[in-house]
Amino acid sequence: MRYEWLELAKKIQAIAQAGLAYSSNKYDIERYEELRDISVGVMGRFTETEMDKVKELFANEEGYQTPKVDVRGVVFKDHKILMVQEQIDGCWSLPGGWADIGLTPKEVVVKEVKEESGLDVKAARLLAVLDKKCHLHPPSPYHIYKIFILCEIIGGKPSAGMETSKVEFFDRDQLPELSAGRITAEQIKMLFEFLDTPHKEPVLD
């Protein structure tokens, strides 16, 4: 029920944002603003985020609302997977982050892996495009698509970045505590399947 309410709130928010972008009638604008406030209240309750913070997340959004895109680099070495420790929660994830305007997915993943792990990589292959709501992540006010890209090491050396504390490679059976908002154990298991089966078809939600 918790997640059903959250998904409804996201849909109300998207309708309100589109209405505010395209309406000129002041009465319609008032109604859409009220809808936005309702959605913010529901999101704040079910994500345990302060209402002012949730409202701030959407205050700078204009036009037709679309999902945000999270790009993650998948790097294997000696049958282990590259992970970085996030400073924000002390847990571990794959290097990556929000897609940047003006950069291709390949360019984003190369930049993120370098900034968070110190390694130079080249993007080799798309492994998966997942919808965050379909997986065991904590609730989030955003609708998010997650892109996983296989990368090959071409240089550099492991070193922490501005947002990371440590950089290590982990065996599939010895994973550290995961940053659940960014990656799940099931997703890492899926990624190791690509190591075991190189010609496995990409996964698409």
Architecture overview:
- This protein has 205 residues and is an alpha+beta fold.
- It has 2 domains: 2-59; 68-204, Nucleoside Triphosphate Pyrophosphohydrolase (Alpha-Beta Complex).
- The protein has 5 helices and 8 strands; from the N terminus they run αααββββαβββαβ.
- It has helices at residues 2-22, 26-47, 51-59, 105-117, 185-196, and strands spanning 68-77, 80-86, 92-93, 96-98, 119-131, 144-156, 164-170, 203-204.
- Strands 1, 2, 3, 4, 5, 6, 7 and 8 form an 8-stranded mixed β-sheet that branches.
- A hairpin with a 2-residue loop joins strand 1 (68-77) and strand 2 (80-86).
- Helix 1 packs antiparallel against helix 2 (26-47) and helix 2 (26-47) packs across helix 3 (51-59).
- The radius of gyration is 19 Å and the shape is elongated.
- The mean pLDDT is 90.
